[in-house]
Amino acid sequence: MALSEQQIERYSRHIILDQVGGIGQEKLLASKVLIVGAGGLGAPAALYLAATGVGTLGLIDDDNVDLTNLQRQVIHHTPDVGTPKVDSAKAKIAAINPDVRVKTYPLRATAANLAAIVRQYDFVIDGTDNFGSKFLINDACWFERKPYSHAGILRFHGQLITVLPGESACYRCIFHEPPPPSAVPSCSQAGVLGVLAGVIGSLQATEAIKYLLGLGDLLTNRLLTYDALTMDFRAVKLNRNPDCALCGPDAAITELADERPPACDLKGQL
């Protein structure tokens, strides 16, 4: 794919980077990233990936924009209240960069549909806020051998990790299984600092871009935590769990399945 004169100008600040250049920008334009959840985390990730020039973005979300979302879900604006989040996000992406093709999936991710969608993409971003969906995304990416970025935010704290199936620790290596229902409060119950979503979602986009370009060190086998009150980033080293029910040698999970009811409702999506 040869860059047009307009694209050379648009992406000039990338192209002058030795680590990216024209070849790297062409690679980004040929890449596909799936974002599950067009909410707090998915919003900044989608905006930056679109501006970066990732050629195809997939958006999964079955929710409509709510007034309470606007405090942190920066891809949605006041006139969008009541409209499907995937449609609202698609419009903003098109306004930022017409080079980007957006595929929308106005549905809830389940074991019946997620694997077939994940299969079409190069990298996946988990922008959901419930444990059932997070385990489902982890498992779908494992079975389809697709790299992905996990993240979560609550109150003033965020965390993220990048998973390369078969190479690094997966989400189940760390957390094993969802907690009992109501054991962990949702954002609607406990609150969340709006800008926190921008910090963590932007880091997820960074991991996607690094993976697509083969740059730097990914957050594999490291859980990065962030405390907005103290401005403290901390990386916790991890190893693959030999007893992991999904990626261990004696794995008990052999097919994709929906988890038990999540601890918080997907409609309160980050």
Structural shape: globular
Largest sheet: 8 strands, mixed
Under CATH, the topology can be stated as: Rossmann fold
The helix tally amounts to 10
pLDDT averaged over residues: 93
- The stretches of 5 or more residues where confidence is low (pLDDT under 50) are 262-270
Task: Tell me the structural class.
Answer: alpha/beta
Rg from C-alpha positions? 18 Å
Q: What is the straight-line distance between the termini?
A: 36 Å
**What is the CATH first-level class name?**
Alpha Beta
Domain count: 1
Descriptive terms for the model:
alpha/beta; Rossmann fold; 270 residues; globular
What does this structure look like?
The protein contains 10 helices and 8 strands. The protein has 270 residues and is α/β, with parallel strands linked by helices. The protein has one domain: Rossmann fold (3-Layer(aba) Sandwich), CATH 3.40.50. Strands 3-2-1-4-5-6-7-8 form an 8-stranded mixed β-sheet, sandwiched between helices. Strand 1 (32-36), helix 4 and strand 2 form a beta-alpha-beta unit. Helix 4 (42-52) packs parallel to helix 5 (85-96). The radius of gyration is 18 Å and the shape is globular. The termini are far apart. Mean pLDDT is 93; it is low at 262-270.
